[in-house]
Amino acid sequence: MKESRAAAIVLSTLLTAACGGFTTVAPSAPAATTLAPSVTFVSPAPTPAPAHAIGPDIPAGLRSNQQVISGSVGPVTDDVAPCYVQRYACERYGFTMNRDGAVEVTLTWEGGERAMLIQLYRAGAGLLHEDLAPRGGPPKITFRRTDIAAMDYELRVVNMEPTTTHAFSLTLTTWE
Exposure winner among 11, 34, 123, 150, fewest CB in 10 A? Predict the structure, then answer.
């Protein structure tokens, strides 16, 4: 019985030494292993910027219709009355939703990133959505709304620069 205890103590001592008990012993010669002649470190690929989500998914079973409108909106003049905060000119485009559905709007223009504003109005019921382009981005606004009730609507393309005319392209996609 004493022999098995002694054997256990010796074995324990050997395992402790083998598993890190000799942490201060210096190597007596270089290791026999060789390293690969060249090691290339690859830095991880940059994380892409998150994509701007334009809105929720379109409900299944709806049919789409797309209109592309090209135009320009200039400054307020004697012939052009302001339509936004009594200071800025806009162009208005009406459309009708015959059934409940969704809309997606994309506005692009020539000019500064914050030169234009887009608004979606319910006819007779007020503002439903308003959007500016994000700072530091291209002159483009895109949004999607899936809570569109059957009624008349109006899109307003607002020129936020009171002394400049901006050419634009407006894409309106409706799903009914």
Answer: 34
